[in-house]
Prior knowledge:
The protein is an alpha+beta fold. It has helices at 7-14, 112-115, 134-152, 159-184, 186-205, 208-212, 217-224, 228-239, 243-259, 266-272, 278-289, 293-300; strands at residues 2-4, 24-28, 42-47, 49-57, 61-64, 67-70, 75-79, 85-87, 95-103, 130-131.
Amino acid sequence: MQHFKTLSSYLDYLKLPPPEHPMLSVFNSKGDGYLPCPRESSPPITNDCYTISLKKFVEGSLNYGRTKYDFTNGVLIFIAPRQVLQWDSSVVFEQKGFSINFHKDFLKGTKLAHQIKKYSFFSYATNEALHLSPKEEKQIESIVENIETEYQNNQDKFSKDIITSQLETLLKYANRFYERQFLNRKELSNDLLERFSHHLSEYFESGQLQEKGIPSIEQIANKMSVSQRYLSDTLKKETGKSTTEHLHLYLIDEAKNILLKPNKSISEVAYELGFEYPPYFSRLFKKKEGISPTDYIQKYKMN
């Protein structure tokens, strides 16, 4: 897989104009203009840059999971360093909006260098982008115009502080708008929970639990074609419980059924549920149910 260590080499690969700053580039369509079009397709690549990009598709629509959305109001995409990128020419749209690319070292010595890691949407897949309302879009674009002004002007000792401050403001607004998106997409959230439970059920029934052990959240998310971070954030917003908590609840529900079967030891139940260490199963069961597996058997087992 090809990796680009510098912003210039990455933009050159995309067939985009070279940056005005060695670690920062800003493209803004403005008015009737269009974003410069990069190469139409690419095999998997990685780079050391962050990307914040607003895409407005003049015509057509794209699928977001099982739902079709008209993107004319704009979709905001966040890409982190080392994230694998790949695209093809099967769907081509004329694009308006903006694209900000900056090397991770551009943030060195700034408070944003540490704060940017708390913005989980940089871990989201492209089909989990932020869908902006016209009002939200205007707010974001006004911030980008401030960044572009500093980028295009003769830069001085204040420029970097001003640009990183504006970037931080942009990310804070994005965080707010994602909160709104999570709240407004309860149907999508419920669908994710149903699919999460369905994949767990399939995994259990196929016998993979005994063979491969308890699946990781990453494995389940990959099966669902969503990112681990987005799955966790969405379920947390909707249900108040993380993906790990939902996994544990599923395991405990299964355990309750197995524990009441005749001639089953606690260790056998633990191994059957994919736990490598029975004591860990017992501690988790007591934490969730308030009683130990042994006490549960004595309390509920029918004579």
